[in-house]
Hints:
- By secondary structure, the protein is an alpha+beta fold.
- It has eleven helices and eight strands.
- The protein has helices at residues 16-21, 25-28, 106-125, 130-151, 163-175, 182-188, 193-204, 208-226, 231-237, 243-254, 258-267; strands at 12-15, 36-43, 46-50, 53-57, 61-65, 71-73, 80-86, 99-102.
- It starts with 11 loop residues before the first strand and ends with a helix.
Amino acid sequence: MFEHSRRPIAHSVASLGKLRMQNAWRVEMLHASPKNRLYWITRGQGRVTINCITRGYGPNTAVFVPARVPMALELASQTQGLELCLPPDSSLRLPEAPFHLRVSNIESQSALTSHIEKIEAELAGRAPALDLTLMAYSLLISAWMTRELAKQEGSILRERAHRLAELFADRMEAQFRSGKGVADYAKELQVTPTHLSRVCREAAGRPAHALLTERIMYEARRLLLETDLAAREVAEQLGFSSAAYFTRAFSQATGRTPTEFRKPRIRA
């Protein structure tokens, strides 16, 4: 029996155009979310990186990213579509692994668009039994995913040759705040740093160091904008040996010091 509660709504729907206009780095830089995310791309083309594996996407592509899986999505100006965030609720029976599917069937395209738009309408209306309705539509989307994956066996974003990149992504997401470098991750994975970087470059188009730096710098941006932590405290949380070293690294990555990056938020 479903529980009626006053818990915060964990679902959300946003257009990709809106995401692009509001700090595109939040989507385009390597990051992870506590929620499951489904991207339904209806127009445009670009690249998406999931678990340090990069692939291209085109119109009518569905990309599913489970909670806490690192990802980055290019959002070119012509890209259109929707982002649906779903709670990490095991009762939804969502896929455990990410996937990247080109949906060619028009009925399947229409069904997914309809399910997402109905969730969007429910969130806007806030009618009674909202939690039940969101659960129902989420289950329909979960069923849609299961059926599409069954029809398109082999389209899941997992390749044996890139398994090392996936393992690196998993460990990086768990430990990127520790101050560990690529050599430390390579040692844990029982490979050389050179080999790890070569595999990452083949899988994601950039070496392991660049992926790790991008993940850390995303979190630095987020903490500076969403918290009142001093730059020194942000540096400590991200494993930097000193605030000065953090400031140099942040300035090199963004072209601005942490204080300059924060200024728009302070004025607002």
